Amino acid sequence: MNAAATAPTEVPHKGLITLSIMLATIMQVLDTTIANVALPTMTGDLGASQDTITWVLTSYIVASAIMTPATGWVSDRVGKREFFLISIFGFVITSMACGIAWSLPSMVMFRLLQGIFGAAIVPLSQTFLLDINPREKAGQAMAMWGAGIMVGPIIGPTLGGWLTESFNWRWVFFINLPVGIIAFLGCAAYLPRSEKRPRRFDFFGFAMLSLGIGALQMMLDRGGEVDWFSATETWVYLFLTLTGMWVFVIHILGADKPFLEPRMFRDRNFTTGLVFIFVIGIILLASLALLPPMLSRIFGYPTITTGLVMGPRGVGTMVSMIVVGRLVQKVDARILVSVGLILTAASLYFMTGFSPQMGSGPVIWTGVLQGLGLGLVFVPLSTIAFATIEPVYRADATSLFSLVCNIG
Questions:
Q1: Is the dihedral of CA 276, 278, 284, 287 positive or negative?
Q2: Alpha helix (H) ranges present in 294-360?
Q3: Total-model pTM
């Protein structure tokens, strides 16, 4: 029977399902940032240079971004439960491969595969939580999901720094093995099966979307290294991005069975949510990407200290998520989002005053403030975005939501 068609209150073992799903989600999201602080150590071991070692991050991000939109089609084809299990299993195996990588090309290849397998974990986890919870508890479900999504990148540098200092950089990937095994066994035992809904694969639409997304990610990741638009490479990426996206939009508007159904964008809540989550993605991921190298290279912090200084941001997010999960059904979501954006804007304003002469205090308290603000924004925004979307579009919608956040 279709899990979405089953009354959510009738789903057995809901707590164990949620725990298993969130373990898989946190495992995948951690890998977007956990390797950042280990890059200097990897450079020597893999025989790479400062310029080429960044491909360890770029390959994972680009592969994940390209494959995320395909989540809805594949899950309809093979079943959401089956696809989720395949994704977890493949992610763990490729994580182990990354841990034993012997050169930069082998690491980049394994990270590419890791990104491909991990792409569906986040959107499918959100789909499952929406499926097994009644609409009145969607806010609490999204609070729990949001905690995993937002705390994962925040504690990533801390955990990565500790593992690198205490053991070596390979444990940044080996740590996925115990977590992945528990998540896989829990999901295999308790996740409800869903009805398969085979549909024709729109290869041209997928190719154009992949071209646009892949080129955009390459432009964003490589831009700073090549001095942005002073390099021909950046202009090529921009041209490919605009071409791919433009052709994709024109194609899906006229195709009989497009890769993504345009009718889902008629839902104003969902479309508005996509715009806002793109902005939040910029705020969250950009600051998280810039802080670790700034603290280590400019401030001169050791790897473990960098992680510890950034850790309190996760505390702010966790507190905010717990509180807002209970408020979202009682307080106007627009008020929560507005307060969250104000707190986040204030933290970014204070961060403009950072200097190498200051202590770690400003980094810590601005991180906590930003964590509080992002938590207030993320939960009500996620709840609103999927409040009125038709269940048949849910897997496609969650994959787009995750993609837009990560592109940001």
A1: negative
A2: 303-310, 312-327, 333-351
A3: 0.77
